[in-house]
Amino acid sequence: MNRLVNLLREDHDALWRLLDDVTDDTDTTDATGGPAQDPAPRRPARRLVALLSAHELAEERVVWPAVRRLCEDGDALARTALAQEDEAKRALRALARLPSGGPGFTACLRTLAGLTRAHLTYEQEQVWPRLESRLTERDDATLARRWRAARRRAPTRPHPWLPARPAVLGTVGPAVAALDRARDALRARTAAGRT
């Protein structure tokens, strides 16, 4: 059992590593003691944007409806988490639009890291134990299967305008994800042409 939480934990572990990578990169200074203008944080920041965007959408489609349905205080847990996610999505969107090393990039990245760390901690300490205690073997298997499907079809960019409603996300999410993946492929081809 605990298949769903194990899948969530895999994403959380990857997110924690990326957060450590990007915040370590932004803590460097140049020879004068000022902030380094190294474009290196851009790549892990892009990975963070993609992983966090996909993770949050999959949670909105699968996890929060299950928490609401199964946990005694599920509505309150989900409301708190969704408010945290909404705030992080706005920071993600801002980060995705800022050039690395440009004005505001490091501050936005640190803000996003703080919001994300608080949110991941909330889920791990407040939500997962309650959800795990309520999952039957069948619920766990079904939710794990749905999670995998939602993650495969999730967008790679933040879309804060998408409402956190499973029906809407199930319909619009795959179309938005296809557009995101096409943009990702174009960016990769453009970057490969520059090297």
From TrEMBL:
Pfam families xref list: Hemerythrin
Domain (Hemerythrin-like) spans: 4-130
Q: Which domain of life is it from?
A: Bacteria
Q: Where is this region: Disordered?
A: 24-43
The cross-references to PANTHER family, in alphabetical order and at most eight, read: HHE DOMAIN PROTEIN (AFU_ORTHOLOGUE AFUA_4G00730) (PTHR35585)
- What this protein is called in its record is Hemerythrin domain-containing protein
